[in-house]
Amino acid sequence: MNRDKLIDLFSEHPDLLNMESADDAPSPEWTNKTEKALSLTLPDDYKWFLSNFGDGDICGDEIYSIYCMADSHNKCNIVNFFMRNIGK
């Protein structure tokens, strides 16, 4: 799905979504820190989502994001999720 279609779908179904805005996006510095912490390169589409929405949820299911804080209790931080699930 292309990005314009995704934005159209978001606009058509505001009752199912709770998206933030570019104002809530992690900085490129935090994206780079996340990639280094995970030893991987995040997909461009995911980085586009982060830069445009920061975070959000669809029907109450959180889209994992990068939160600009070191918070091991933040279950929706992609770094914490990844580390818990690969056993690091």
Automatic annotation (TrEMBL):
Domain of life: Bacteria
Pfam families: SUKH_6 (PF14568)
Name of this protein: SMI1/KNR4 family protein
Species of origin: Photorhabdus stackebrandtii
